[in-house]
Design a protein that fits this description.
alpha+beta; three-stranded antiparallel beta sheet; 7 helices
């Protein structure tokens, strides 16, 4: 439970890796998502303006981005007391488990990427208003072309 005292800002944001069959099919593939018009226009603009990424960039960036998320998931699953976390992280068994989990997640993404040739990363944040909060939490993660969502909470 969070207890707020005074003014607190929410610095929530997420990145999304989207995959498309070709640059020419982006608009058509987004239209198949049946998005509300304002969301469709925003996502289309963001995807069109985003730098196109190659497979290696996506996979390398993803493995770096998920490092701490997976580290914390493993720590939580072990019920490690806070005072022991740094000690546990140094253990060879922990490092092997962490590396395997990262490798497995990257392999899953690589498999999902096989049917696409164009990749982009877009970002949305709670701080930018209701529309962007909705895009971040409800719209983009549920899109068929969304390969992965990376939370920066």
């Amino acid at each position: 439970m969070k207890i707020r005292k005074g003014f607190v800002t929410n610095s929530s944001s997420s990145s999304f890796i989207l995959g498309f069959k070709s640059e020419e099919s982006i608009k058509e593939e987004l239209q198949k998502e049946n998005l509300e018009e304002e969301y469709f226009e925003e996502i289309l603009r963001d995807v069109t303006e985003a730098a196109k990424l190659d497979r290696e960039d996506v996979l390398e960036g993803y493995s770096e981005e998920i490092y701490y998320q997976i580290l914390w998931e493993i720590e939580d699953s072990l019920y490690v007391p806070y005072s022991k976390k740094l000690e546990i992280r140094k253990m060879e068994e922990f490092q092997e488990k962490l590396n395997k989990a990262i490798t497995d997640r990257v392999s899953e993404l690589e498999e999902d990427m096989q049917r696409y040739s164009v990749f982009v990363e877009i970002n949305y944040s709670d701080n930018d208003g209701l529309m962007y909060s909705t895009l971040e939490h409800y719209v983009v993660p549920d899109m068929n072309c969304c390969l992965v969502a990376i939370s920066h909470h």
